[in-house]
Amino acid sequence: MFEACPMSDLPPGESVRVEAHVPIAVFNVDGELFAIDDTCTHQDASLAEGWVEDCRVECPLHAAAFDLRTGLPCGLPAKRPVRTYPVRVADGVVYVETEAAEVA
Questions:
Q1: CA separation (Å) from 36 to 39, 79, 91, 103?
Q2: What is the pTM of this model?
Q3: How many other C-beta atoms lie within 10 A of the C-beta of residue 96?
Q4: Fewest CB atoms within 10 Å of the CB: 3, 20, 55, 96?
Q5: Bridge partners of residue 29, in order along the sequence
Q6: What DSSP string runs through 2-53?
Q7: From the centroid of its chain, how far is CA 104?
Q8: pLDDT (tens digit, 9 = 90+) per residue, 22-35?
Protein backbone atom coordinates (compact mmCIF):
# COMPACT_ATOMS: atom_id res chain seq x y z
CA MET A 1 0.00 0.00 0.00
CA PHE A 2 1.28 3.49 -0.74
CA GLU A 3 0.18 6.99 0.14
CA ALA A 4 -1.52 8.72 -2.79
CA CYS A 5 -2.50 12.11 -1.38
CA PRO A 6 -4.29 13.88 1.45
CA MET A 7 -8.06 13.48 1.13
CA SER A 8 -8.28 17.29 1.09
CA ASP A 9 -6.43 17.24 -2.28
CA LEU A 10 -9.13 15.03 -3.82
CA PRO A 11 -12.55 16.69 -3.52
CA PRO A 12 -15.59 15.17 -5.28
CA GLY A 13 -15.28 15.37 -9.07
CA GLU A 14 -11.49 15.58 -9.01
CA SER A 15 -8.67 13.16 -9.82
CA VAL A 16 -4.95 12.92 -9.14
CA ARG A 17 -2.12 11.13 -10.90
CA VAL A 18 0.39 9.42 -8.63
CA GLU A 19 3.67 7.73 -9.47
CA ALA A 20 3.86 4.16 -8.23
CA HIS A 21 5.13 0.95 -9.84
CA VAL A 22 3.10 2.33 -12.77
CA PRO A 23 1.31 5.69 -12.91
CA ILE A 24 -2.08 5.41 -11.17
CA ALA A 25 -5.07 7.75 -11.36
CA VAL A 26 -7.25 8.16 -8.29
CA PHE A 27 -10.77 9.55 -8.75
CA ASN A 28 -13.34 10.90 -6.29
CA VAL A 29 -16.80 10.22 -7.71
CA ASP A 30 -19.37 11.74 -5.36
CA GLY A 31 -17.32 10.71 -2.32
CA GLU A 32 -16.46 7.20 -3.57
CA LEU A 33 -12.81 6.66 -4.45
CA PHE A 34 -11.49 4.61 -7.36
CA ALA A 35 -7.95 3.91 -8.56
CA ILE A 36 -6.97 2.63 -12.02
CA ASP A 37 -3.88 2.53 -14.22
CA ASP A 38 -3.43 6.10 -15.39
CA THR A 39 -2.40 5.21 -18.95
CA CYS A 40 -5.11 4.56 -21.54
CA THR A 41 -4.72 1.16 -23.18
CA HIS A 42 -5.46 2.63 -26.60
CA GLN A 43 -2.63 5.17 -26.61
CA ASP A 44 -0.39 6.85 -24.05
CA ALA A 45 -2.70 9.42 -22.48
CA SER A 46 -3.29 10.23 -18.82
CA LEU A 47 -6.75 9.12 -17.72
CA ALA A 48 -6.47 11.45 -14.70
CA GLU A 49 -6.83 14.25 -17.24
CA GLY A 50 -10.02 12.74 -18.66
CA TRP A 51 -13.69 13.48 -18.02
CA VAL A 52 -15.68 11.52 -15.46
CA GLU A 53 -19.39 10.84 -15.70
CA ASP A 54 -21.51 8.01 -14.29
CA CYS A 55 -18.45 6.22 -12.83
CA ARG A 56 -16.70 6.18 -16.20
CA VAL A 57 -13.64 8.08 -17.30
CA GLU A 58 -13.23 9.22 -20.89
CA CYS A 59 -9.69 9.48 -22.22
CA PRO A 60 -8.81 13.04 -23.27
CA LEU A 61 -7.01 11.87 -26.40
CA HIS A 62 -9.46 9.74 -28.42
CA ALA A 63 -12.52 9.45 -26.13
CA ALA A 64 -11.99 5.81 -25.13
CA ALA A 65 -13.97 5.19 -21.94
CA PHE A 66 -13.35 2.91 -18.94
CA ASP A 67 -15.57 1.83 -16.05
CA LEU A 68 -13.84 3.02 -12.86
CA ARG A 69 -15.28 0.08 -10.87
CA THR A 70 -14.03 -2.70 -13.15
CA GLY A 71 -11.45 -1.13 -15.47
CA LEU A 72 -13.29 -2.58 -18.46
CA PRO A 73 -13.47 -0.49 -21.61
CA CYS A 74 -16.96 0.83 -22.28
CA GLY A 75 -16.27 2.81 -25.40
CA LEU A 76 -14.07 2.43 -28.45
CA PRO A 77 -11.31 2.76 -29.49
CA ALA A 78 -10.00 1.01 -26.33
CA LYS A 79 -10.36 -2.76 -26.35
CA ARG A 80 -8.17 -3.76 -23.38
CA PRO A 81 -9.06 -3.00 -19.75
CA VAL A 82 -6.99 -1.01 -17.28
CA ARG A 83 -6.13 -2.46 -13.88
CA THR A 84 -8.06 -1.30 -10.83
CA TYR A 85 -6.67 -0.96 -7.32
CA PRO A 86 -8.33 -1.00 -3.90
CA VAL A 87 -8.39 2.39 -2.18
CA ARG A 88 -8.48 3.12 1.57
CA VAL A 89 -8.67 6.32 3.58
CA ALA A 90 -7.05 6.51 7.01
CA ASP A 91 -6.52 9.62 9.11
CA GLY A 92 -7.41 11.88 6.18
CA VAL A 93 -4.92 10.25 3.79
CA VAL A 94 -5.78 8.29 0.63
CA TYR A 95 -3.89 5.01 0.23
CA VAL A 96 -3.83 2.70 -2.80
CA GLU A 97 -3.12 -1.02 -2.58
CA THR A 98 -0.17 -2.04 -4.73
CA GLU A 99 -1.81 -5.25 -5.90
CA ALA A 100 -4.22 -4.72 -8.78
CA ALA A 101 -7.66 -6.27 -8.55
CA GLU A 102 -8.49 -8.99 -11.05
CA VAL A 103 -10.38 -7.76 -14.10
CA ALA A 104 -13.97 -8.96 -14.06
A1: 9, 16, 22, 11
A2: 0.92
A3: 20
A4: 3
A5: 32
A6: EEEEEGGGS-TT-EEEE-SSS-EEEEEETTEEEEEESB-SSSS-BGGGSEEE
A7: 16
A8: 999 999 999 999 99
